[in-house]
Write a structure and sequence with these properties.
The complex is a heterotrimer of chains A (311), B (252) and C (287). By secondary structure, chain B is α/β, with parallel strands linked by helices. Chain B has 10 helices and 10 strands. Chain B folds into 2 domains: 6-81 and 160-251, 3-Layer(aba) Sandwich (Rossmann fold), CATH 3.40.50; 92-158, no CATH class. Chain B has helices at 44-51, 74-80, 97-108, 114-128, 143-156, 173-188, 200-206, 224-229, 231-238, 240-251, and strands spanning 6-15, 18-28, 33-37, 59-64, 67-68, 82-85, 161-165, 192-197, 209-214, 217-223. The model of chain B has no long low-confidence stretch (mean pLDDT 85). Chain C has a domain at 24-216. Chain C is built from 11 helices and 2 strands. Chain C has helices at 2-32, 39-57, 61-82, 92-114, 137-159, 161-171, 173-178, 183-206, 216-230, 235-256, 258-275; strands spanning 127-130, 133-136. Chain C has a two-stranded antiparallel sheet with strand order 1-2. The radius of gyration of chain C is 18 Å and the shape is globular. The chains are: A mainly alpha (311), B alpha/beta (252), C mainly alpha (287). Chains A and C meet through helix 5, helix 12 and helix 14 of A and helix 4, helix 9 and helix 11 of C. Chain C: It comes from Ancylobacter oerskovii. Chain C: Keywords: Amino-acid transport, Cell membrane, Membrane, Transmembrane, Transmembrane helix, Transport.
Chain lengths: 311, 252, 287
């Protein structure tokens, strides 16, 4: 999966386009750019467990939602905003490490189900623990006192920063012993253990990495919208959408998940704007076509072309 | 006798009510080449799985360099220098040949970095004669080459004890000769080798000492020549009737 | 004690409904190794067809039962034959994503045509009392029907050639192929049966609970829990899983409030996943 210059070029262009939107576009476009950056970070995070390691994880919404809540609760307790995000990241990371040590014993479908159930259990616990979380009524957060445009720009750059951190982490892991070991686990877990890879520790590391950036994005998202509730924070749709984005771009690659997220969010926006009644069905069609005609993701198109034929 | 490098004391393995291994004991001296034979279903692969931590032993002690390692995990066995090959080869199919071997050097062979591991991998590919295929995806190799890849991967782990589980199964006779020459070369480099086979001919050409496993029990342990003449071994292999006829034939 | 008899009765009735709801999902998962994300929408589709037949033409749900079953079987068979079979041996993530995409389409179509308004077939059958326990008759009939349908599937799986072929494919695909079984066709039939069972569960549910597209996810979740708790791919597994879930939800609802009933179900599922991943009556080593 060596990431070639093409991947870096695409990433640089993509990030520059997002970062420059405040210079020439209206607030709606800047907001969309921030959403692209956020989903880019989520998909890039998922890539550690789903792309590198090949474990079909559907825990994204759990980490995102817990990030929302830990961040919100900290901020309501008077913790400064950025520190609250950091606490949320660390706490959810620790939670993922503990949870991973338990559920990563499962494989295949069982792991997939276990990871979805985690989202549901988190949502239900948050909904019923009213004294801490406000239950179904949700929580209000202190709003930033700047003008709407400034707030939008600020959160665009926050989301971009999280995205860039997740990409740097991916590039580092890709070249390291950890990345090599995760790819071995993906291909043959028994053989990986037999060559000396501590598979449990490596999988837990991948699962934890897949959680921290989601938590950071969740905490920032909570501060951005100023209000969170359990249904919004723990969406099953999000937990399935994020792996689809990563696959759309190319799971297991550096640039793929971000590019897939960008393509998906933009398509979604277009469908929402033009086909209000049918946007969900159209996305469904896109997913079905993707599975049949582009199983390696968008990046595989570019790779095929540059390789000049079948590999 | 020198301190054994690997020693099993009363190892048992039960699957529910089924006794796969009963009270198995033996010791390997450093640098020794020993054959482990037994009919199909005797428990040979189970024994390897127990020694390398893939399956936990039900009771008994497994001493590696004097330390009890019965509770180890597979990756710990690999890092200690207890390597094995699989009867059914287990490559990382989408990776190239050299990447497969690099994994062995990096995680089992204690390489300091991915680059160092690659250098070590190149050496073991040269050793087994696979260097020309280094950049092929592992899935594309023919069976004989895949078996060599398995050997190269294990060698890159810098093993002290190497357990070869039916490395010759499915090979034709010229390929077997090549593999035997290679195993001899490995043994000469000082690695302790345990060859698991059910083809007696193969084992006899490599090892002076044989262990015989039958119905999960170690029924013989000694010099190869004596073992092949042992009545119980012949019985285990050929069945009682045939053994009796063979005996009559000798007496006549 | 009276209250517990009532809870027990409610739990068992709910459990039979859950078994019927999940058994098709379990079959598809066990035989095809595909998690069918469409299952919840199939149930709702069956329910809607029943409601519209009742309100539009006055057709009784019991008459709709075979009609819905046949329609859903055809839909499932066609989907598997034309679409899912092409990637049926791909990794989990691929087949799951595909059925999720298909579900988005079906969900959208249903919401567009039927809207998300909750609808229920009101049969007004009254209630009966058995000692301290009061049972609404529609629910009682629904429960009985759910049990009969589930057991009918069991009889088909055990007694018919198709059923035996499905079991053979489930046990060992390549051996089944060697025996001359056309696995692709068996897959299509299995998926058809899965959809059929979802559809008839929908007919039953429409006469007991309000039907709306908003609950497709909830029903899918129940199917997951029942499969994992009971063990996937077998009718007895679905029955045990359904009854256990019904009882647990009923008890948890009484002790901790209705909201916690669902949580209890998921916690039960996670506990079973981690301690006995093959389910309460599942076959060990079959994953």
């Amino acid at each position: 999966m060596r990431s070639g210059p093409l991947a870096y070029a695409l990433l640089a262009v993509g990030i520059l386009v997002l970062a420059s939107t405040p210079l020439y576009a209206d607030n709606y476009v800047v907001r969309t750019a921030a959403i692209v950056a956020m989903y880019g970070a989520l998909a890039t995070s998922w890539n550690f467990i789903g792309g590198f390691t090949g474990y079909p994880s559907f825990s994204t919404a759990a980490f995102f939602g817990l990030g929302c809540y830990v961040g919100a609760i900290c901020q309501r307790a008077g913790v400064p905003m950025v520190l609250a995000w950091l606490i949320a990241t660390l706490m959810v990371g620790a939670f993922a490490a503990l949870l991973g040590a338990i559920i990563l014993r499962l494989k295949g479908h069982y792991f997939a189900i276990g990871s979805i159930a985690v989202v549901e259990v988190c949502r239900l616990i948050v909904s019923s623990w009213s004294s801490l979380t406000g239950g179904g009524d949700g929580l209000n957060l202190p709003l930033l006192t700047w003008g709407p445009e400034q707030v939008m720009r600020f959160f665009l750059f926050v989301m971009l920063a999280i995205l860039i951190l997740s990409l740097i982490a991916t590039a580092l892991v890709d070249r390291s012993r950890l990345g090599f070991g995760l790819r071995c686990i993906h291909q043959n877990e028994d053989a990986a253990a037999m060559v000396g890879i501590d598979t449990t520790r490596y999988k837990v590391a991948a699962y934890t990495l897949s959680a921290v950036f989601c938590a950071a994005a969740g905490a920032a998202y909570a501060s951005w919208t100023g209000y969170i509730d359990p249904t919004e924070s723990f969406q099953i749709l999000m937990t399935v959408k994020v792996p689809v984005m990563a696959m759309l771009g190319g799971a297991g690659t550096l640039a793929g998940p971000f590019l897939g997220a960008a393509a998906f969010v933009l398509l979604e926006e277009v469908f929402w704007a033009n086909f209000l009644d049918w946007n969900r069905a159209i996305l469904g069609v896109v997913i079905v076509l993707l599975v049949f005609f582009l199983p390696g993701g968008l990046l595989s198109l570019a790779r095929k072309r540059s390789a000049g034929g079948p590999a | 006798m020198t301190e054994p490098i690997l020693k099993l004391e009363g190892v048992c393995k039960n699957f529910g009510g089924l006794k796969a291994l009963t009270d198995v004991s033996f010791a390997l001296a450093p640098g020794e080449v020993v054959g482990l034979i037994g009919p199909n279903g005797a428990g040979k692969t189970t024994l390897v799985n127990v020694v390398t931590g893939k399956l936990p032993a039900s009771t008994g002690r497994i001493l590696f360099e004097g330390k009890d390692v019965a509770a180890q995990k597979p990756h710990e066995a690999a890092r200690r220098g207890l390597a094995r090959t699989f009867q059914i080869v287990q490559p990382f199919p989408q990776m190239t040949v050299i990447e497969n071997v690099t994994a062995g050097a990096l995680f089992g062979g204690g390489a300091a970095s991915v680059g160092d591991a690659r250098d070590m991998a190149r050496k073991s590919l040269d050793f087994v004669g696979l260097a020309p295929l280094a950049d092929r995806p592992a899935a594309q190799l023919a069976l004989a080459a895949r078996k060599r890849l398995e050997l190269a991967k294990s060698l890159a782990m810098q093993p002290k004890v190497l357990m070869l589980d039916e490395v010759n199964a499915g090979l034709n006779s010229s390929e077997i000769d090549g593999a035997l020459a290679l195993i001899r070369k490995i043994a000469e480099s000082g690695v302790t080798v345990l060859i698991i086979e059910h083809l007696m001919k193969v084992v006899l050409s490599l090892s002076k000492r044989l262990l015989v496993l039958h119905h999960g029990q170690m029924i013989a342990d000694g010099p190869a020549k004596e073992i092949v003449a042992d009545e119980r071994v012949i019985e285990a292999y050929l069945g009682q009737k045939y053994a009796a006829r063979l005996k009559e034939l000798h007496h006549a | 004690m009276a209250i517990y008899s009532q809870i027990l009765a409610n739990g068992l009735m709910l459990g039979a409904l859950y078994a019927c709801l999940a058994v098709g999902f379990s079959l598809v998962w066990g035989v095809l190794n595909v998690i069918n994300m469409l299952h919840g929408s199939f149930i709702i589709l069956g329910g809607y067809l029943t409601w519209f037949a009742w309100h539009g033409w006055g057709i009784h749900p019991i008459v709709m039962l075979p009609v819905v079953g046949a329609l859903l079987f055809a839909l499932g068979f066609a989907l598997q034959k034309l679409v899912i079979n092409r990637v049926v041996s791909a990794p989990v993530l691929t087949t799951l994503t595909l059925t999720f995409g298909l579900d988005m389409i079906l969900y959208n179509v249903m919401t567009y045509w039927f809207t998300a308004t909750p609808r229920r077939v009101q049969l007004d059958l009254g209630a009966v009392s058995l000692g301290p326990v009061t049972l609404p008759v529609d629910r009682l009939v629904g429960t009985a029907l759910a049990l009969v349908l589930t057991l009918a599937l069991y009889a088909v799986m055990r007694g018919s050639n198709i059923g035996r072929a499905i079991v053979a494919v489930r046990m060992d695909r390549s051996a089944a192929e060697l025996m001359g079984i056309r696995t692709e066709r068996i897959y299509a039939i299995t998926f058809g049966i899965g959809a059929l069972m979802a559809g008839v569960a929908g007919v039953v549910f429409a006469s007991v609970f309000p039907i709306t597209t908003n609950v497709t996810g909830t029903y899918l979740g129940k199917a997951f829990v029942v499969c994992v708790v009971g063990g996937l791919g077998s009718v007895p597994g679905a029955l045990v899983g359904g009854l256990v879930l019904g009882l647990v939800e009923s008890l948890a609802g009484h002790w901790f409030g209705p909201q916690q009933a669902i949580t209890a179900g998921f916690v039960l599922m996670l506990a079973i996943l981690l301690t006995r991943p093959t389910g309460l009556v599942g076959v060990r080593g079959y994953e």
